[in-house]
Write the C-alpha coordinates for this entry.
Amino acid sequence: MSRPAFSARKYLRSGLKLPFCPGCGCYTVINCFLRAIYELGHDDLSGFVFCSGIGCAAWIPSPYFDADSVHTPHGRAIPVATGIKLARPELSVVVFGGDGDIAGIGCGHLIHAARRNADVTVIMVNNMVYGMTGGQVAPTTPLGARTTTTPMGSFERPLDVARVVAACGANYSARWTTAHREELVQAFKRALTGRGFRFVEVVSQCPTNFGRRIGKPDAKAMLDWFKEASVPLEEAERLEAEELRGRIIVGVFADRDEPGLLDRLKEAYGR
Ligand SMILES: Cc1ncc(C[n+]2csc(CCOP(=O)(O)OP(=O)(O)O)c2C)c(N)n1
Ligand code: SF4
Ligand SMILES: [Mg+2]
Protein backbone atom coordinates (compact mmCIF):
# COMPACT_ATOMS: atom_id res chain seq x y z
CA MET A 1 0.00 0.00 0.00
CA SER A 2 1.43 3.41 -0.92
CA ARG A 3 2.06 5.98 1.77
CA PRO A 4 -0.63 8.69 2.14
CA ALA A 5 0.36 12.13 0.81
CA PHE A 6 1.83 14.67 3.22
CA SER A 7 -0.60 16.45 5.48
CA ALA A 8 0.59 18.74 8.29
CA ARG A 9 -2.65 18.01 10.15
CA LYS A 10 -1.55 14.44 10.71
CA TYR A 11 1.16 15.70 13.11
CA LEU A 12 -0.98 18.33 14.89
CA ARG A 13 -3.33 17.84 17.84
CA SER A 14 -6.90 18.07 16.64
CA GLY A 15 -9.24 20.78 17.91
CA LEU A 16 -6.53 23.39 18.56
CA LYS A 17 -6.20 26.61 16.55
CA LEU A 18 -2.67 27.83 15.88
CA PRO A 19 -2.18 31.16 17.72
CA PHE A 20 -0.28 33.18 15.09
CA CYS A 21 -1.42 36.36 13.31
CA PRO A 22 -2.52 36.05 9.66
CA GLY A 23 0.56 36.05 7.42
CA CYS A 24 2.99 35.15 10.22
CA GLY A 25 6.09 33.25 9.08
CA CYS A 26 5.59 30.69 11.87
CA TYR A 27 3.00 28.94 9.63
CA THR A 28 5.66 28.39 6.96
CA VAL A 29 8.15 27.12 9.54
CA ILE A 30 5.60 24.59 10.81
CA ASN A 31 4.70 23.44 7.32
CA CYS A 32 8.30 23.03 6.15
CA PHE A 33 9.34 21.33 9.39
CA LEU A 34 6.51 18.80 9.30
CA ARG A 35 7.17 18.17 5.62
CA ALA A 36 10.78 17.36 6.51
CA ILE A 37 9.52 14.97 9.19
CA TYR A 38 7.27 13.29 6.60
CA GLU A 39 10.00 13.09 3.98
CA LEU A 40 12.29 11.47 6.53
CA GLY A 41 9.69 8.69 6.79
CA HIS A 42 8.16 9.52 10.20
CA ASP A 43 4.42 8.89 10.27
CA ASP A 44 4.11 10.40 13.75
CA LEU A 45 6.20 12.35 16.24
CA SER A 46 6.92 9.54 18.66
CA GLY A 47 10.64 9.49 19.32
CA PHE A 48 10.80 13.30 19.34
CA VAL A 49 10.77 15.74 22.24
CA PHE A 50 10.24 19.45 21.59
CA CYS A 51 11.56 22.12 23.86
CA SER A 52 10.83 25.83 23.75
CA GLY A 53 11.08 28.99 25.83
CA ILE A 54 8.91 32.10 25.54
CA GLY A 55 7.79 34.19 22.54
CA CYS A 56 5.60 33.69 19.47
CA ALA A 57 8.02 31.20 17.86
CA ALA A 58 8.23 29.30 21.13
CA TRP A 59 4.58 28.39 20.63
CA ILE A 60 5.32 26.48 17.44
CA PRO A 61 5.57 22.97 18.95
CA SER A 62 3.54 23.08 22.09
CA PRO A 63 0.72 22.22 22.59
CA TYR A 64 0.06 22.04 18.83
CA PHE A 65 2.40 19.20 17.78
CA ASP A 66 1.01 15.81 18.74
CA ALA A 67 4.17 15.03 20.67
CA ASP A 68 5.93 15.30 24.02
CA SER A 69 7.08 18.83 24.69
CA VAL A 70 8.43 21.10 27.42
CA HIS A 71 8.12 24.86 27.89
CA THR A 72 11.00 26.43 29.79
CA PRO A 73 11.61 29.95 31.07
CA HIS A 74 12.60 32.52 28.44
CA GLY A 75 15.97 31.65 26.85
CA ARG A 76 16.48 28.37 28.69
CA ALA A 77 15.26 25.80 26.19
CA ILE A 78 18.73 24.74 24.98
CA PRO A 79 20.13 23.60 28.37
CA VAL A 80 16.87 21.77 29.11
CA ALA A 81 17.03 20.08 25.69
CA THR A 82 20.66 19.10 26.31
CA GLY A 83 19.68 17.56 29.64
CA ILE A 84 16.87 15.56 28.03
CA LYS A 85 19.24 14.27 25.35
CA LEU A 86 21.84 13.22 27.93
CA ALA A 87 19.21 11.38 29.98
CA ARG A 88 17.43 9.82 26.97
CA PRO A 89 19.92 9.59 24.10
CA GLU A 90 17.52 7.54 21.99
CA LEU A 91 15.16 10.53 21.62
CA SER A 92 15.48 13.21 18.98
CA VAL A 93 15.40 16.55 20.80
CA VAL A 94 14.36 19.70 18.94
CA VAL A 95 14.26 23.29 20.18
CA PHE A 96 12.11 25.99 18.59
CA GLY A 97 12.59 29.61 19.59
CA GLY A 98 12.67 33.20 18.47
CA ASP A 99 15.73 35.35 17.90
CA GLY A 100 15.24 37.10 21.25
CA ASP A 101 14.84 33.81 23.06
CA ILE A 102 17.76 31.99 21.41
CA ALA A 103 20.23 34.75 20.51
CA GLY A 104 19.26 37.42 23.07
CA ILE A 105 18.48 36.21 26.57
CA GLY A 106 19.61 32.65 25.71
CA CYS A 107 22.76 33.59 23.75
CA GLY A 108 25.19 32.15 26.33
CA HIS A 109 23.45 28.78 26.18
CA LEU A 110 23.49 28.85 22.37
CA ILE A 111 27.22 29.49 22.17
CA HIS A 112 28.15 26.84 24.71
CA ALA A 113 25.84 24.20 23.26
CA ALA A 114 27.45 24.83 19.84
CA ARG A 115 30.94 24.69 21.43
CA ARG A 116 30.06 21.40 23.13
CA ASN A 117 28.45 20.12 19.93
CA ALA A 118 25.46 19.07 22.09
CA ASP A 119 23.35 16.53 20.19
CA VAL A 120 20.22 18.64 19.70
CA THR A 121 18.56 20.49 16.81
CA VAL A 122 17.77 24.18 17.28
CA ILE A 123 15.44 26.07 14.95
CA MET A 124 15.61 29.82 15.49
CA VAL A 125 12.83 31.87 13.91
CA ASN A 126 14.45 35.23 13.28
CA ASN A 127 11.73 37.84 12.81
CA MET A 128 14.26 40.53 13.77
CA VAL A 129 12.27 41.80 16.78
CA TYR A 130 10.74 40.73 20.07
CA GLY A 131 7.44 39.97 18.37
CA MET A 132 5.25 38.74 21.21
CA THR A 133 5.91 41.75 23.43
CA GLY A 134 5.12 44.33 20.74
CA GLY A 135 8.14 44.65 18.43
CA GLN A 136 11.08 45.89 20.49
CA VAL A 137 14.61 45.98 19.07
CA ALA A 138 16.41 42.60 19.21
CA PRO A 139 20.05 41.53 18.73
CA THR A 140 19.06 40.63 15.15
CA THR A 141 17.33 43.89 14.15
CA PRO A 142 18.90 45.30 10.96
CA LEU A 143 20.94 48.49 11.34
CA GLY A 144 18.66 51.48 10.85
CA ALA A 145 15.37 49.55 11.17
CA ARG A 146 12.59 51.21 13.09
CA THR A 147 11.15 49.35 16.07
CA THR A 148 9.06 50.45 19.05
CA THR A 149 12.21 51.02 21.11
CA THR A 150 14.29 52.50 18.26
CA PRO A 151 11.89 55.00 16.70
CA MET A 152 14.81 56.73 14.94
CA GLY A 153 16.16 53.41 13.63
CA SER A 154 18.35 50.79 15.28
CA PHE A 155 21.87 52.10 15.90
CA GLU A 156 23.42 48.66 16.67
CA ARG A 157 24.77 46.10 14.21
CA PRO A 158 22.84 42.80 14.19
CA LEU A 159 24.38 39.53 15.33
CA ASP A 160 25.15 37.13 12.45
CA VAL A 161 23.75 34.18 14.39
CA ALA A 162 24.21 31.31 11.89
CA ARG A 163 27.84 32.37 11.36
CA VAL A 164 28.52 32.63 15.11
CA VAL A 165 27.08 29.14 15.68
CA ALA A 166 29.27 27.75 12.87
CA ALA A 167 32.34 29.47 14.33
CA CYS A 168 31.61 27.95 17.76
CA GLY A 169 31.98 24.44 16.33
CA ALA A 170 28.43 23.23 15.61
CA ASN A 171 28.21 20.34 13.18
CA TYR A 172 25.57 22.10 11.09
CA SER A 173 24.48 25.69 10.72
CA ALA A 174 22.33 27.15 7.96
CA ARG A 175 20.25 30.25 7.29
CA TRP A 176 17.29 30.51 4.90
CA THR A 177 14.21 32.69 4.80
CA THR A 178 10.52 31.81 4.66
CA ALA A 179 10.75 32.62 0.93
CA HIS A 180 13.05 29.55 0.55
CA ARG A 181 10.60 26.77 1.34
CA GLU A 182 12.38 23.91 -0.44
CA GLU A 183 15.77 24.88 1.01
CA LEU A 184 14.17 25.00 4.45
CA VAL A 185 12.77 21.48 4.10
CA GLN A 186 16.21 20.20 3.07
CA ALA A 187 17.92 22.08 5.92
CA PHE A 188 15.47 20.66 8.46
CA LYS A 189 16.02 17.15 7.10
CA ARG A 190 19.76 17.55 7.44
CA ALA A 191 19.41 19.03 10.93
CA LEU A 192 17.17 16.19 12.07
CA THR A 193 19.71 13.55 11.12
CA GLY A 194 23.23 13.01 12.32
CA ARG A 195 24.93 13.99 15.54
CA GLY A 196 26.22 17.08 17.31
CA PHE A 197 24.70 20.54 17.39
CA ARG A 198 22.51 21.35 14.40
CA PHE A 199 21.15 24.85 13.89
CA VAL A 200 18.76 26.35 11.35
CA GLU A 201 18.06 30.09 11.36
CA VAL A 202 14.86 31.00 9.54
CA VAL A 203 14.50 34.67 8.66
CA SER A 204 10.75 35.06 9.02
CA GLN A 205 8.07 37.71 8.66
CA CYS A 206 6.26 39.39 11.55
CA PRO A 207 3.97 41.76 9.64
CA THR A 208 2.14 42.75 12.82
CA ASN A 209 4.96 44.01 15.00
CA PHE A 210 7.81 44.66 12.56
CA GLY A 211 6.71 44.78 8.91
CA ARG A 212 4.17 47.55 9.33
CA ARG A 213 6.77 49.75 11.06
CA ILE A 214 9.25 49.43 8.19
CA GLY A 215 6.80 49.99 5.35
CA LYS A 216 6.16 46.29 4.64
CA PRO A 217 2.73 45.82 6.18
CA ASP A 218 1.89 42.31 4.98
CA ALA A 219 3.43 38.92 4.35
CA LYS A 220 3.78 39.51 0.60
CA ALA A 221 5.76 42.73 1.06
CA MET A 222 8.04 41.02 3.56
CA LEU A 223 8.57 37.92 1.40
CA ASP A 224 9.36 40.14 -1.62
CA TRP A 225 11.94 41.89 0.54
CA PHE A 226 13.49 38.56 1.61
CA LYS A 227 13.72 37.43 -2.03
CA GLU A 228 15.33 40.68 -3.18
CA ALA A 229 17.72 40.97 -0.25
CA SER A 230 18.92 37.35 -0.14
CA VAL A 231 22.38 36.57 -1.40
CA PRO A 232 23.91 33.08 -1.41
CA LEU A 233 26.87 32.64 0.93
CA GLU A 234 29.25 31.71 -1.91
CA GLU A 235 28.40 34.96 -3.73
CA ALA A 236 28.54 37.01 -0.51
CA GLU A 237 32.12 35.90 0.03
CA ARG A 238 33.12 37.77 -3.14
CA LEU A 239 31.35 41.02 -2.14
CA GLU A 240 32.66 43.98 -0.12
CA ALA A 241 31.14 44.82 3.28
CA GLU A 242 29.45 47.90 1.83
CA GLU A 243 27.80 45.82 -0.93
CA LEU A 244 26.45 43.43 1.72
CA ARG A 245 24.78 46.13 3.76
CA GLY A 246 21.06 45.32 4.04
CA ARG A 247 21.48 41.91 2.37
CA ILE A 248 20.44 38.59 3.94
CA ILE A 249 23.19 36.01 3.49
CA VAL A 250 21.64 32.56 2.99
CA GLY A 251 23.16 29.11 2.76
CA VAL A 252 25.04 26.53 4.77
CA PHE A 253 27.69 27.95 7.11
CA ALA A 254 28.86 24.61 8.54
CA ASP A 255 28.24 20.98 7.66
CA ARG A 256 30.56 18.49 9.32
CA ASP A 257 30.43 15.25 11.28
CA GLU A 258 32.61 15.81 14.34
CA PRO A 259 31.94 13.82 17.53
CA GLY A 260 29.03 15.23 19.51
CA LEU A 261 28.77 15.77 23.26
CA LEU A 262 27.46 12.21 23.77
CA ASP A 263 30.44 10.74 21.89
CA ARG A 264 32.87 12.82 23.95
CA LEU A 265 31.24 11.74 27.20
CA LYS A 266 31.41 8.11 26.14
CA GLU A 267 35.07 8.55 25.28
CA ALA A 268 35.81 10.15 28.65
CA TYR A 269 33.79 7.78 30.86
CA GLY A 270 33.70 4.64 28.74
CA ARG A 271 29.88 4.40 28.66
C1 LIG B 1 12.82 36.38 31.89
C2 LIG B 1 11.84 37.04 30.96
N1 LIG B 1 12.15 38.26 30.47
C3 LIG B 1 11.28 38.87 29.63
C4 LIG B 1 10.11 38.27 29.27
C5 LIG B 1 9.14 38.96 28.35
N2 LIG B 1 9.15 38.41 27.01
C6 LIG B 1 8.19 37.52 26.61
S1 LIG B 1 8.35 37.10 24.99
C7 LIG B 1 9.69 38.12 24.83
C8 LIG B 1 10.37 38.31 23.50
C9 LIG B 1 10.38 37.14 22.60
O1 LIG B 1 11.04 37.47 21.42
P1 LIG B 1 11.53 36.38 20.46
O2 LIG B 1 12.24 35.31 21.21
O3 LIG B 1 12.27 37.00 19.35
O4 LIG B 1 10.19 35.68 19.96
P2 LIG B 1 9.06 36.23 18.96
O5 LIG B 1 7.92 36.61 19.82
O6 LIG B 1 9.63 37.38 18.20
O7 LIG B 1 8.78 35.05 18.08
C10 LIG B 1 10.01 38.77 26.01
C11 LIG B 1 11.13 39.73 26.16
C12 LIG B 1 9.83 36.99 29.81
N3 LIG B 1 8.71 36.33 29.49
N4 LIG B 1 10.71 36.40 30.65
S1 SF4 C 1 3.22 39.15 16.56
FE1 SF4 C 1 4.48 38.71 14.74
S2 SF4 C 1 5.64 36.85 15.23
FE2 SF4 C 1 3.94 37.02 16.70
S3 SF4 C 1 2.26 35.80 15.79
FE3 SF4 C 1 1.96 37.94 15.14
S4 SF4 C 1 3.03 38.09 13.14
FE4 SF4 C 1 3.77 36.23 14.16
MG1 LIG D 1 11.65 37.47 17.45
Q: What stands out?
A: The first helix runs from residue 26 to 39. The chain has ten helices and ten strands. The CA atoms of residues 90 and 174 lie 25 Å apart.
